[in-house]
């Protein structure tokens, strides 16, 4: 016999599980080595790995809206954010239908947003949408992180 406490826990797990969408994010470098005066170009890819569609915003404004990057050197020092801060008004118009197993990608010039000096670096992208940002019940929310990729900057 299942007690009230056990039943409540099972119900809570089922409700939480029903909302989980499976997304992955990856960072693709245009190359692994850049000169100090060169633009560091990357491509960020988000994939819907679930078997149903979801709505996801396609707004990629580093540090402000939905995506941020951890860029660290070998000593653990972090690259300084030098991009502009934006006052973006979020709305359901940002949402795009992401069919099952589909991918979207966005090119970014990382050097427009972060100060990266000479050295070896590790880069990870974090994509986060907080619950309740959008009114639509099919809008995805959560946080996903890419694998770490490495690159170097030289003179």
Question: Would you kindly provide a written description of the structure presented here, covering whatever features stand out?
Answer:
This protein is mainly beta and 155 residues long. The chain has one domain (22-154): Immunoglobulin-like, CATH 2.60.40.2970. The protein is 10% helix and 42% strand. The chain has one helix and twelve strands. The chain has one helix at 4-19; strands spanning 23-29, 33-35, 41-48, 54-57, 67-73, 80-81, 95-98, 103-109, 114-115, 119-129, 142-145, 149-154. Strands 2, 5, 10, 11 and 12 form a five-stranded mixed β-sheet that branches. Strands 1-3-8 form a three-stranded antiparallel β-sheet, with no helix packed on it. Strands 4-7 form a two-stranded antiparallel ribbon. Residues 5-20 have low confidence and may be disordered.
How many beta-strand segments? 12
Give the C-level CATH assignment.
Mainly Beta
CATH architecture: Sandwich
Low-confidence stretches: 5-20
User: From the alpha-carbon coordinates, what is the Rg to the nearest angstrom?
Assistant: 19 Å
Domains, number: 1
Q: Kindly state the percentage of residues in helix.
A: 10-25%
What's the N-to-C terminus distance? 71 Å
Q: What would the CATH topology be?
A: Immunoglobulin-like
Mean pLDDT: 81
Subunit organisation of the chains? single chain
How would the global form be characterised?
elongated
Instruction: Give me the number of helical elements.
Output: 1
- The run of helices and strands is HEEEEEEEEEEEE
- Main sheet characteristics: 5 strands, mixed
Structural class computed from helices and strand pairing: mainly beta
Which strand-content bin applies to the residues?
35-45%
